[in-house]
Pseudouridine-5'-phosphate glycosidase
Amino acid sequence: MLEKYLQIHSEVQKSISAGEPVVALGSDIISNDTHYPKNINVTNDICKVIRNCGAIPATIAIIDGILKVGLTEEEIELLSLNKNIINADRKDIPFVISRKQTCSTTIAASIVLANLAGIKVFATSHLQGVRRESDNIFDISTDLRELVNTDIAVICSGINSTLNIGSALEYLNTNGVPVIGYKTNEISSSYERKNSFAVDYNIDSPLEISKVLKAKWDLNLRSGVLIVNPIINDEIEDSNIQLIYNNAKLAADITKNLYKLYKSKL
């Protein structure tokens, strides 16, 4: 039944079936973050970063109502040229399918599709989190909810700077989602390092992160893992693009090490 809705690129499917390294990417940068033709160049460059690290990129979107994991050049071009494409969230997926729409995907929706395809590592720039308190009610983003409910590792550079980072981390902690800092003890808001909060664990190598992920998944400890790749000085004045380049590289290194661990049966 799933095949009716989900289409996985042949190269991506081959790698998934063989247990080889694959990194999932969202498509929102193609349709929302940059303009044509820069969006195509950026997407291709991010995919090249992942390939150069020895992994296969799988960009996620919805094309004519079909859930796509791994886009062709033609599909990337289609998303790049269409100025009216919506960014579909988790709740939108059934409606987009039934209406045969073409959409980019939010982080939450991308996590859903990556999980359906069997991909365990996802790279992005930063997460949405918990809105600041309004009338004593917290608005928790679907990014965090999906991370809580899905066995996936999300590599990003922090949480949106307008949001309540402390509440986001408390929500993840309450729901058993570990937060790993890659060579850092702190998680900062996106594009700034003030108001930092402590991560659960500071791990300084992709291999050690991979060992943690493998142990977690071998034990079937349900929920995702948030891996924070700290912002570098010259990135703060830049856009999401450099963040995604760096996070894609780290994601590829992690999934490549995971592949080696499973292959060696360690």
Q: What stands out?
A: The radius of gyration is 17 Å. The chain has a mean pLDDT of 88. The first strand starts at residue 6 and ends at 8.
